[in-house]
Structure formats: C-alpha cells, structure tokens
Amino acid sequence: MAKNIREEIFKTLNQIENGKGYSNIVLNKTTRDMETRDANFTREIVYGVLENRIYLEWVVSRYSKLKISKISPAVLTIIKMGLYQILKMDKVPDSAAVNECVKLSKKHANKGAQGFINGLLRNVARDKENIELPDRKKDFTKYISVKYSYPEWIIEDWAAMYGESFTEELCEANSKKPSLNIRVNTLAIDRDTLMERLSESGRECRAAEYGKDIVVVLNPDGLIDTEEYRSGLFTVQDESSSLVAQIMNPESGATVVDVCSAPGGKTTHMAQIMKNKGRIIARDVHEHKLELIESNARRLGIDIIETSLADAAERDESLVDKADYCLVDAPCSGLGLVRKKPEIKYNKSRSDLESLSKLQSEILEASSGYVKKGGTLVYSTCTLNVKENIEVVKDFLDKHPEFKLEPFEAELPLEESKRGYIELYPNVHGTDGFFISKMIRM
Ligand SMILES: C[S@@+](CC[C@H](N)C(=O)[O-])C[C@H]1O[C@@H](n2cnc3c(N)ncnc32)[C@H](O)[C@@H]1O
C-alpha cells in the first residue's frame, strides 16, 4: 500500500464533509492515479465513514468523555476513520487501525488529542461486541436513524409514506454497495455483442432485468479507461435512470424538448432510441453543464442535440406546441441516490424538500406548454418523496384536464406501469430510487 493513503483518505473526507464536492467526483479525482488496491481501500473507507456518520458519532458519544461538539472536526474525522475500520472492516486488524490513526493525528492534532484518539479507539476495539443501539421497540425512528445513519426526519417521513418494515428494508438495501451499470450505445453496437466483448476481456457482466440497454458489470475497475469506453460503445448510467428514455420511447425523427438535461444521460439515451434522427433541444440553467452534454454526445457519435441555456421555470413562448415529447427530469432532493452519494442524507432538510416541490411544479407547468396535442410529457426525479413525485403530478393533472397519465407496460412490463407512473426502490427493484410518470396531451 502506498505510504500516504490514509492522509489521502483524511483529505478527501474533509473536502466532502466541507461541502467542496460530491463524494463520487472528489473520490474519482483522489483515486485517479492510485493502484487498484489502494483506490478500493480509499473508496471503502471514504464511503464507509460518510455512510455511517450518525452511527459512528453515536459510538463516539458513548465512549468519549468530551461532548462531540467539543471535538475538533479534524480529530472527529480521524476517530471516525478508525472506528469504521474497527467496527465494519474485517480485513484491517484493530491494532493497525489504531496505530495508523495515531500516526495521522501527529500531523493533524495536538498532543492531548493524540492521547484522546488512541484511548478512545482502543476502548471501542476492546468492547466492540457490546455496543448497543437505541431500543427498536421504544423508538423505531431513533433505532433506524442510528443503525443506518439517517437524520431522524427522513426516517419519520419514509415510515409515514411506506410503513416501518419497508423503511427498514429500504435502509438496509441502501447500505449495500451497488454494482456498476453501463448503457450500451445502441447506435454503435448491440447489447449482446458488447457483453461478449467485455467478457472476452475478463469482465463479468449480465443483462439488466428492466433496462433494455443496460449491462450490469460485476468487476468494473478501470472500465472507463478501456478502448470500448473511449470509442463510445457505452456510457455509465444506472438502470433506473435509463428507464426514463425507455418509457418515453421517442420516435425517430421527432422533436424533443429536454428542459433539465445536463449532463445529458437521458438526452443521449433518447437520441439513441431515435436512431440519431430528429431534433432534441437540450436545456439547463447552468451554462458550464451544457459542455458536458455536448462532450457526451460527441463521444457517443450523436449529432441531433442542440444545447441552450434556459431557466425551465419560465415558459419559452417560441417552443409552445412544438414538442412531440417533452422531458422534465427535475432537480430534486436526490434521496434515491444515497447508495452512491451517501452525503445526500445529511445535506437536505424538510424545508429544502418543500421548496423543491414548488420549483418542480413551476417547471412542469411551464414545460407542459411545449407539448403538442397527442404529444408526450414525462416527469421524473431521482428521489423517494411523494411530495416531489406523485403529488407534483397529481397537482398538475388537477389543473390540466387536457393531460392524462399514460400506461407504459409495453415499455416496462410491470404491474405498476399500468398506472402511468412508477416509483423504483433499491430494496424492490435493485436500482437507485427513482420516480417516472408518463402523460399524454389529449
Ligand atoms: C436531475 S438533473 C438532470 C439529469 C439529466 N436529465 C441527465 O439525465 O443527465 C437536474 C438538472 O436540472 C438542472 N436545473 C436545476 N434548476 C433548473 C432550472 N430552473 N431550469 C433548468 N434546469 C435546471 C440542474 O442543473 C441539473 O443539471
């Protein structure tokens, strides 16, 4: 193992905890030049510490004489790195975990703190079989909140929406490492041929259950450094996200407006389904993100996408009645993505969710005007929160009798597809959490 690996882990965690970047992006930068073994170790600890923050702090609060609020952020990060290795990783001996944290503390903490870190970690290591969780029967919310590290308000909301046992299953599924999903560029290759090519180079892969263009790769290390990726034979996309374009199913030659389109995952997928014929107007409110759509399209050999800067909450009169298909893949709280970006659990509040549902309604209202008679409107989010999902759609439909939900079992053969909307769950479908609804303008 390279010398400064724990130093790199410490820095990466600080960056993410200080809100200086999403975990997947910061981690990709940190691990870019590392050996695979070091990169995997780094990922495991960074994700583990982020994912288990509340649980690890619960353990600190039970073994520390100092209140958590009195412990400096750097010291707390070192302690959590140590605790994660002691409590959740079998392959690191406890003594090594403690010694490495003490070494790290020599650079980032004063003498007193070094002794404190050493003592606390050793105490926990000795007592690790006896660490108690809150009593499930007395307080379900607190128990789940500590066991799976979620703010209590999320557990309260999910339990109210989905019931207690479903919430527990959902949190359990969210704590499992997801496999990597890739979307085949069907303009360049078909799924079976790509899978054969990947298998020949030692990849273990299987066709996804619901996503027609998705391959699940079980040993993905270094996949985006391959010739297959560089030459645009696939892109990285979760199965649930790929179902949006699959359910939309736009015809070749159609006009599509995608109002929240960066970085272009669904835009480029729609272009594939359209066989790169027609026109896709792809917009976003952040100018720097438009380049991401363009570079993704270039790599995949797609040339029917026109990007432009626009606020989707304001109707653009020049597009009224112009779209055969309109996609509103709205900005959302992202609670369906905690498997991949665990920090999402801690970055949101109930009031954020309320303002998001207001923005989502405004965007849906403004964008619905672009849909021609007989045209299709798809509204999707990557969150698990009825207020941002079906309630936004129902509220819209109440005000717009000219739209109705459209069943999509031909595109996704599941019972729920008959209702015209679906919520996907990690514990049920094995995908990221997602919401997709399909409407038709009559
Ligand atoms: C869920 S992401 C879209 C993901 C994208 N559809 C894809 O598949 O790659 C939501 C996007 O909405 C954009 N956004 C946020 N507020 C917006 C607004 N008022 N108007 C247009 N775009 C907005 C964000 O910049 C972000 O890129």
TrEMBL record:
Its main location: cytoplasm. The active site is at C382 (nucleophile). PROSITE patterns: SAM_MT_RSMB_NOP. It holds the Pfam family Methyltr_RsmB-F. Keywords: Cytoplasm, Methyltransferase, RNA-binding, rRNA processing, S-adenosyl-L-methionine, Transferase. It is found in: Cytoplasm. The keyword S-adenosyl-L-methionine applies. Gene3D superfamilies: NusB-like, Sun protein, domain 3, Vaccinia Virus protein VP39. One of its GO terms (biological process) is regulation of DNA-templated transcription. It catalyses: cytidine(967) in 16S rRNA + S-adenosyl-L-methionine = 5-methylcytidine(967) in 16S rRNA + S-adenosyl-L-homocysteine + H(+). Its EC number is 2.1.1.176. One of its GO terms (cellular component) is cytoplasm. It comes from the Bacteria. Residues 170-442 form the SAM-dependent MTase RsmB/NOP-type domain. The keyword DNA damage does not apply. It is an enzyme of class 2 (transferase). Belongs to the class I-like SAM-binding methyltransferase superfamily. RsmB/NOP family. Specifically methylates the cytosine at position 967 (m5C967) of 16S rRNA. This is 16S rRNA (cytosine(967)-C(5))-methyltransferase.
